[in-house]
Automatic annotation (TrEMBL):
Lineage, opening ranks: Bacteria, Pseudomonadati, Pseudomonadota, Gammaproteobacteria, Vibrionales
Protein name, entry field: DUF2523 domain-containing protein
InterPro entries: DUF2523
Superkingdom assignment: Bacteria
Taxonomic source organism: Photobacterium halotolerans
Keywords, comma-separated and alphabetical: Membrane, Transmembrane, Transmembrane helix
Bilayer-crossing regions: 12-32, 69-95
Length: 105
């Protein structure tokens, strides 16, 4: 006679269980979404830093020198060497801002 109350209660329990499972899944998806956005932002930041550290074209600064000296500088790899030195100095200065990396300097 009162089987419909038991069925209604079982349906309510089933609904609440599905609701909890759905909420847990939604929270997991939210965490994954936030992690993905953080990784996308870090990827963009790394790309911007990589663009800043591209080798510098030093040939525009050697226009006042004779062409033979500019050619020798290019063959020796002076522009790439200067870019590497500037990059190393920049990285060292950035690392000085991070605590506990000042060991030995």
């Amino acid at each position: 006679m009162y089987d419909w109350i038991i069925d209604l209660f079982n349906m309510l329990l089933n609904f609440l269980y599905n609701l909890v499972v759905s909420l847990i899944t939604m929270l997991k998806d939210l965490v994954y979404f936030m992690l993905e956005q953080l990784l996308e932002a870090s990827k963009a930041l790394v790309g911007m830093i990589a663009n800043l550290l591209t080798p510098i074209d030093m040939s525009q600064y050697f226009t006042g020198l004779p062409s033979s000296i500019g050619w020798v500088f290019g063959q020796v790899g002076l522009p790439q060497a200067i870019a590497m030195i500037i990059t190393a100095i920049t990285i060292r200065l950035i690392l000085q801002l991070i605590p506990f990396t000042r060991l030995g300097s």
